[in-house]
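Below is our example:
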Amino acid sequence: MEEQNFKNHTGLSFWFHGVVLGMILLAIVASCVKLYRNWDTGLGGLLMPVIALIISISLLFVAFSARGFALRAQDRAIRAEENLRYYAITGDLMDMKLTISQVVALRFAPNNELVDLAHRAVNENMSNKEIKMAIKNWRGDYHRV
């Protein structure tokens, strides 16, 4: 696996972003086309295209919700892991002013950069992108979903 850095740490999942979302978007487009073509047929001809469209849009919401739930659970785990790592280094817990986004970004900082960068993040209200760009020696996270 390629060594992670700021430029390549994000990624797309072929199965989620390519296949699943592609199929859902195709279903939405197909049901919209069918609805358009059946528009003049009356209520009887519109029922199935409307149901297909509702189901397709619902699937889109389900897919994004499921992805969001998994990412939030990972964010909570990352916060706990990084708080433990910070405690092991300093004997104190991380500043509660750090947002979850900042803590998630700090996971890429090695131990010798973590404390100073965490303080800077709070004092300068750094964004997650600014935190990641400030890291000198990137610590890869190869387990993020």
Observations:
- Helices lie at 14-37, 43-90, 100-106, 111-123, 128-134.
